[in-house]
Amino acid sequence: MSDSYADEAVTRRVLLDSRTWAFVGLRDNPGRTAYDMAQLLQSRGKAIVPVHPAAETVLGESGVSSLAEMTQRVDVVGVYRRAEHAGEVADEAIKLFASYGPRRDGEVRAVWFPLDVIDEAAARRVREAGLDVVMDRCPAIEWARLRLPR
Questions:
Q1: Architecture of the structural domain at 3-145
Q2: Is-contact 11 132, C-beta < 8 A?
Q3: Could you state, in order of their start, the residue ranges of all structural domains in the chain?
Q4: Strand, coil or helix: 58
Q5: Is residue 106 over pLDDT 70?
Q6: pLDDT at residue 1 greater than cutoff 90
Q7: Residue 24, exposed/middle/buried by CB under 10 A (0-12, 13-18, 19+)?
Q8: Helices (DSSP H) in the chain: which residue ranges?
Q9: Quick check: helix, strand or coil at residue 26?
Q10: CA-to-CA distance for 114 and 106, rounded, in angstroms?
Q11: CA pair distance 98, 93, nearest whole angstrom
Q12: What is the average per-residue pLDDT within 64-93?
């Protein structure tokens, strides 16, 4: 995998400047990584939107069944699905962000592929759409590694 999808400046900006994350694949299951990462980012002041066909309430937040169902504006789409589904989620994220219109100065629009969710073709499509990409990185590890404020 190319290091271009783990740019430190992009990772820092996405973690610090984002306000709302859509977690695709998030269910009300504390035994899953997506749950832990959503909880961590909530504790860092981020709003979360669970995205799963079951549309469950997770960590006190109402879920939606798909990115197409989103009514709330988000800054980051976290792809907490297996790598073979990452491309489909990336394409849905591209459509979602395109629906917002032109990107404003300082606005975060990113797709985050966590550890072991690697799809370079999907990451290229995301970048070509003018969005930031972080791939094969864990928000918790990056938060600590970059020594970001809690």
A1: 3-Layer(aba) Sandwich (3.40)
A2: no
A3: 3-145
A4: strand
A5: yes
A6: no
A7: buried
A8: 8-17, 33-43, 83-98, 120-128, 139-145
A9: coil
A10: 23
A11: 8
A12: 97
